Amino acid sequence: MFIAWLLLFKSLIAFILVNASVVGLEWTQYHNLDEIYEWLSELETKFSPLVTVYTIGYSYENRPIKAIKISSQPGNQAIFMESNIHAIEWISSAASTCFVDKLLHSDDKNLQDLLLRYDWFLVPVMNPDGFTYTHEINRWWRKNRKPTGFSNETGPCYGTDLNRNFNYEWKKSGFPISDPCDHWYHGSGPDTEPEVLALQNFINQFEDDYIRLYLAMHAYGNFVLLPYGHTSDIFPPNYDQMMRIAQGFADAAIKSYNTTFQCGASGLLNYSGYVSGDAKDWIYAVKNVPFAATIELRDNGRYGFLLPADQIVEVCTELTDGMVGLIKAAEMERVLTPKV
Ligand SMILES: *[C@@H]1O[C@H](CO)[C@@H](O)[C@H](O)[C@H]1NC(C)=O
Ligand SMILES: *[C@@H]1O[C@H](CO)[C@@H](O)[C@H](O)[C@H]1NC(C)=O
Ligand SMILES: *[C@@H]1O[C@H](CO)[C@@H](O)[C@H](O)[C@H]1NC(C)=O
Ligand SMILES: [Zn+2]
After folding, report:
1. What residues sit in the active site (predicted)?
2. Whole-number Å distance between alpha carbons of 223 and 108
């Protein structure tokens, strides 16, 4: 009798646990586009009207590019994040979605304040075609999937590096961005790719000064990279201020796992060479957003792009700690002004 009751009780607990885990994403594995989009719509249902999901445009292969907005009160300034513009960098969307989930569910006072005081935007997968391609065909794909119009002896060449296609100092420097068959191809002109235009159109709707921080999530190397990417000679007007804010991220992100983030202009650090036409430089220089950075998450090259899924939760913790530090520093610099 007791045994039977125990078995029933055990299966009841198992049933509850299994069904609890069906709701939402889990950050113990990497998810595909459908799973991430399903999570977005669950959040919208659960947190309406706090959370809104937008389709900001469509990819070349006609997949929606979705954004989530979280706004607790009118009059907030905005913080904008974007991830997986590079298809191969799975940790970027895994960590950014995990961070947003924490923001919505945390009982930590710091995070609750951030949720209340700022409007948050995340485009979890900027490059849905490339991302789907990495899940289904080639894990090493980086670009989008639009044919370049060029071919070599292996056949037609596909894809533009979306983070080289933005119209600021486009094509200025960086090797081998002019090769239409290479991983870093900048496109046939600036702003030629539908994914880039979708992001720009979405951002162009907002009034000036609404978006104050822009974070482009990437991997790997553990860097906070600042404008500009195309040069090591010219620095942005408020470079020193951006450095102090970036250092706020690094000083906080080291706390849990002793992970060191190096901060500096991407042109100066010259991480994988110069970069022209990337999102952060466009946002900073064309849209006048006062702090824009590319955050390169783990690791330092041991696993590189193939970071094991059992590190997602730790990277999410680093990112969350880092964001709290970054926002504190941005408030001290008066780049951000909380409403309450
Ligand atoms: C031809 O293009 C493909 C990508 O489309 C690339 O993998 C290959 O290395 C290129 N071949 C040469 C000789 O450049
Ligand atoms: C933290 O990392 C640094 C090098 O990055 C190392 O010298 C130091 O021993 C590490 N500290 C701990 C507690 O692991
Ligand atoms: C940056 O990297 C590029 C390509 O790797 C190289 O040509 C250039 O000299 C480097 N610049 C500096 C300042 O190290
Ligand atoms: Zn990247």
Report:
1. 296 (proton donor/acceptor)
2. 26
